[in-house]
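dumping this here before i forget
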Amino acid sequence: MRIIRTAGWEGEQSLPMPKVLPPQVRRSISRNIYDLLTGKYFEQIPLQGLFDILKAHDVYPIDEEGSNWSGMLLGGKECGDPQAADQRADFDLVWEVDGQRSPVKNAMLTLSWCVMPSGKYEITSYLG
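structure:
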């Protein structure tokens, strides 16, 4: 097995080479994201809800160093504003199987948002 080195959850650790997330897991995550977001507007970006969906499938968002993702999403452009197209975040993922986390090579979580005139967020997110 080839090993890559990355900053981990308790300092630097070794992770196996990236794995392919099975189609049934991808479909289930996508269905759950669709159910969470479709036809709704939000007072705040439902990041925890999206991360909970991933976690239920043993998938976790990570930052560019391989650590659990933490951060802020910036941007409050109104829907229809050309600059709202830049309000987007892509999250790399790891998949945990039998206690071992491996980078996911065939999927990432994509999230974009804009603010409606009502002040609520319109959210688009998918596993791409």
